Amino acid sequence: VQLVESGGDSVQAGGSLKLSCVISGWRYPSTVLGWFRQAPGKEREGVAAIYTYGGVALDTYYADSVKGRFDISRDNAKSTVYLQMNSLKPEDAAIYYCAASGGPIRGPNKLSPRDYNYWGQGTQVTVS
Hints:
Strand content: over 45%
Order of helices and strands: EEEEEEEEEEE
Radius of gyration: 14 Å
Structural class: mainly beta
Distance between the termini: 34 Å
Mean pLDDT: 93
Largest sheet: 7 strands, mixed
């Protein structure tokens, strides 16, 4: 399983970016795909996640800090999960990682990094 992110860039506050994550080698019918971020000196935190079964998106989850501004989606034909980020703030600046759980995640919290087994290399987002 490989996850490759792209789309990170430097933008001004209030701007938008769309991150992409291409997934290859996938073999799990049920999984949660998530976006995480890590700023310097801070722990990695969950931003958004999408639960899918058989390729069908069943539910989405968002951190309170990004609700109403970020949107997670997936395109099965392209094996890609996206993170549309609007109204960006300086505190959104971080390295953003795509991750996959490799199966269902029990409990209501779908944004804990501990529940994800596969990770991309990250893409840098700078907001000034």
